[in-house]
């Protein structure tokens, strides 16, 4: 009698044992199908001694059904999955699931049928067919995906197949990707770039754990440097994973990659079509996918032969996942490199303090690129004190910034205005009775979006049309917008510079690759004079004729529930400032603020990065904040406020009394209501010596809560809302 232990992809089931025939060995890491009641489930064969399960007698075991025709998950990846679950206090199965691409991909290769336009042009068309013809140019996908893309029913498309407007194509799921050529277009590197690149190239050859911080100013050519390491991995036939913080950045990145290596890399993100996902995953596990570019979800994939990891814009907080498994992809990437024995490059112009600290301690090797490529200078940064240089009434841009915008427009140069706030106005109220529009599901004001004429909650997605009259007092035409969002700034620019061509860049307008691609093409061809955007435009872009950057409200980021508010503000402004003057013409940055004396603003104005890091380091040391101490949050939520409160109190009441751990709360979370759930929060501040995770587990595991209560642990939290 032989048995295997399975980690099942379902947190409620966890670990189950099954029977295998005598003499058959199934390697650890194999992905298998097994029966559960009348259903079939998937699991990974795991070392039994590493997973505790309920002991089931041999006689009761059911047999495994099938080993999926994919390579077993490597031991290194299994150890990484265990480490992640352990460190972030997350269910093992939830972490393991992130390694899985799609269930379909496990079923082996084969073919699938996709459809595309035939090019036939019928004389008469129904409006729906016309819309489909328009939307599906250049597309090829399943009927379902095309229907979604075109916004028509599947029936309409099937009719079009019958009418010869769409044709079926058979695609091989395992068709290879065109190979990237390491020497396709090798740039001539500057001496500084060359020596940095050489270090990385050697590290790839060495194939050992080697973490690097590539600390280069904006426009120094960090990408070109790490591309040399990518080229070396390609020559050695090893895979490369490049993590980017946001999908919005990939469009630009794909083109740069193609320019350098002749083909686009393989994309991995949550909105891939299912056929693309299946093909990519299969190529990744078989080692046929060479370079994979993705958001954090690409981190746990079962690469067959990984040789290098790059985390670009490594300081970005979007590497921290705030739902499901609350992990930081930057930190787990370093662990993956460690388990796999690989070099990893964290690239940033504004590294996180934690990363800097590790570099200073010698854990990471720091490689510097202190100047811009091609002799470009870093921009000149000026502070505009809004208390002295007040904008006109009802306006948000101070006179010197308006002047500077006029000047650039006259010279045919580009400007960028940065305000990290979507929509038209963050708060709408009634002039007559003071009524404020609030989200019914969240502790948040509704944000007016004037282009879509709606009030929206940025937390839960609740939306309502802007009413004609106040819902409270019934007065008509009485709503006032308070404060600016980017849409309002765009309006202001249109008023003061009516002839300027503007582009609004937010996640509302740039929500698909085409829109982003069009924006970049227009900006590059100088069809845009003024870009107005949120944090989406602060990083990655390179527009040589952009010479002015205006920061509309530098104080905004210092408010709110960001634990690293000072650092965030510094990074965002330094990054957006870094978009100015990247070509031949020098750049200028104007920062509007009411607190020019704040240490962050002063450091930015003086271009004194070291002063900022030094001040921030001291502040964190005093507060016992990371990297000197550790934080964790426990968030308790329920649709029933009393139930949530009593669960939070039960947790607070059993808090361990330890010398190296301070427990604060429970208190209502700043977002006391989120998506209809009432939330209470406990904060833990621990010394580095504390056994934080172990303590949390032995504290929370014995507690029982009603079904409607959710208790989430957030280790190393970023947001305290
Ligand atoms: N050796 C080189 N030869 C030719 N062009 C280069 C070279 N190095 C950098 N460049 C160009 O200079 C520009 C800036 O480089 P890159 O975008 O890599 O900088 P970066 O350090 O990533 O900046 P940021 O942090 O601001 O995104 C790019 O257009 C890049 O193609
Ligand atoms: Zn809401």
TrEMBL record:
TM annotation in the entry: none
Enzyme class: isomerase
Family matches, as Pfam families: DEAD, PriA_3primeBD, PriA_C, Zn_ribbon_PriA
Source organism superkingdom: Bacteria
SUPFAM superfamilies noted in UniProt: P-loop containing nucleoside triphosphate hydrolases
Binding site for Zn(2+) 1: 430, 433, 470, 473
Similarity field: Belongs to the helicase family. PriA subfamily.
Role noted for this protein: Initiates the restart of stalled replication forks, which reloads the replicative helicase on sites other than the origin of replication. Recognizes and binds to abandoned replication forks and remodels them to uncover a helicase loading site. Promotes assembly of the primosome at these replication forks.
Stated name of the protein: Replication restart protein PriA
């Amino acid at each position: 009698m032989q048995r295997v232990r399975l980690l099942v992809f379902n947190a409620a089931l966890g670990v189950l044992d099954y029977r295998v025939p005598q003499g058959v060995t199934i390697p650890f890491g194999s992905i298998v199908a097994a029966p559960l009641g009348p259903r079939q489930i998937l699991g990974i064969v795991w070392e039994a001694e590493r997973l505790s399960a309920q002991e089931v007698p041999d006689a009761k075991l059911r047999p495994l059904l099938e080993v999926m025709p994919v390579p077993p998950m490597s031991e290194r990846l299994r150890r990484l999955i265990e480490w992640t679950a352990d460190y972030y206090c997350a269910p093992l199965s939830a972490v393991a699931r992130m390694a899985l691409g799609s269930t379909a991909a496990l079923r082996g290769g084969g073919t699938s049928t996709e459809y595309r336009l035939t090019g036939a042009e019928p004389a008469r068309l129904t409006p729906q067919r016309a819309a489909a013809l328009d939307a599906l140019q250049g597309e090829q996908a399943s009927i379902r995906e095309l229907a979604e893309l075109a916004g028509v029913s599947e029936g309409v498309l099937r009719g079009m197949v019958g009418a010869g407007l769409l044709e079926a194509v058979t695609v091989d799921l395992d068709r290879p990707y065109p190979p990237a050529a390491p020497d396709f277009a090798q740039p001539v590197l500057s001496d500084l770039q060359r020596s940095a690149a050489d270090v990385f190239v050697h590290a790839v050859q060495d194939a050992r754990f080697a973490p690097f911080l590539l600390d280069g100013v904006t426009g120094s050519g960090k990408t070109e440097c790490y591309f040399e390491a990518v080229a070396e991995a390609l020559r050695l036939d090893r895979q490369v994973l490049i993590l980017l913080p946001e999908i919005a950045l990939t469009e630009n990145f794909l083109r740069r990659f193609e320019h350098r290596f002749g083909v686009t890399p393989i994309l991995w993100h949550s909105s891939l079509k299912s056929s693309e996902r299946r093909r990519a995953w299969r190529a990744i596990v078989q080692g046929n996918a060479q370079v994979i570019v993705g958001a954090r979800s690409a981190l746990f994939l079962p690469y067959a032969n990984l040789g290098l990891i790059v985390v670009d814009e490594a300081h970005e907080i979007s590497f921290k996942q705030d739902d499901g498994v609350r992990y930081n992809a930057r930190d787990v990437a370093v662990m993956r490199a460690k388990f796999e024995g690989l070099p990893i490059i964290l690239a940033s112009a504004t590294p996180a303090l934690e990363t800097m600290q590790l570099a200073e301690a010698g854990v990471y090797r720091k490689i510097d690129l202190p100047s811009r490529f091609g002799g470009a200078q870093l921009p000149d940064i000026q502070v505009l004190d809004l208390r002295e240089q007040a904008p006109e009434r009802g306006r948000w841009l101070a006179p010197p910034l308006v002047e500077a915008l006029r000047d650039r427009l006259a010279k045919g140069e580009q400007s960028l205005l940065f305000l990290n706030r979507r929509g038209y106005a963050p708060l709408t109220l009634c002039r007559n009775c003071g009524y404020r529009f609030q989200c019914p599901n969240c502790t948040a004001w509704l944000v007016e979006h004037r282009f879509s004429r709606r009030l929206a909650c940025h937390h839960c997605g609740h939306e309502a049309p802007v009413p004609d009259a106040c819902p409270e007092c019934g007065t008509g035409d009485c709503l006032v917008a308070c404060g600016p969002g980017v849409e309002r700034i765009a309006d202001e620019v249109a008023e003061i510079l009516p002839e300027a061509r503007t582009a609004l860049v937010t996640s509302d307008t740039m929500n698909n690759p085409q829109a982003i691609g069009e924006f970049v093409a227009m900006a590059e061809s100088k069809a845009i004079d003024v870009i107005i955007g949120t944090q989406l435009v602060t990083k990655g872009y390179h527009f040589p004729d952009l010479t002015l950057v205006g920061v509309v409200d530098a104080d905004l980021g210092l408010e709110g529930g960001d634990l690293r508010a000072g650092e965030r503000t510094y990074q965002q402004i330094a990054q957006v400032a870094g978009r100015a003057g990247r070509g031949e013409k020098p750049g200028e940055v104007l920062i509007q603020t009411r607190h020019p004396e704040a240490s962050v603003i002063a450091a930015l104005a003086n271009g004194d990065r070291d002063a900022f890091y030094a001040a921030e380091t001291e502040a964190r040391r005093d507060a016992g904040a990371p990297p000197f101490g550790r934080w964790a949050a426990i968030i308790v939520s329920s649709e029933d406020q009393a139930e949530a409160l009593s669960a939070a109190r039960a947790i607070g009441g059993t808090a361990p009394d330890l010398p190296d751990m301070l427990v604060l709360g429970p208190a209502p979370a700043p977002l006391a209501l989120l998506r209809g759930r009432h939330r209470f929060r406990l904060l833990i501040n621990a010394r580095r010596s504390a056994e934080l995770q172990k303590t949390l587990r032995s504290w929370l595991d014995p507690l029982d809560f009603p079904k409607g209560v959710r208790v989430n642990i957030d280790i190393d939290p970023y947001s305290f809302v």
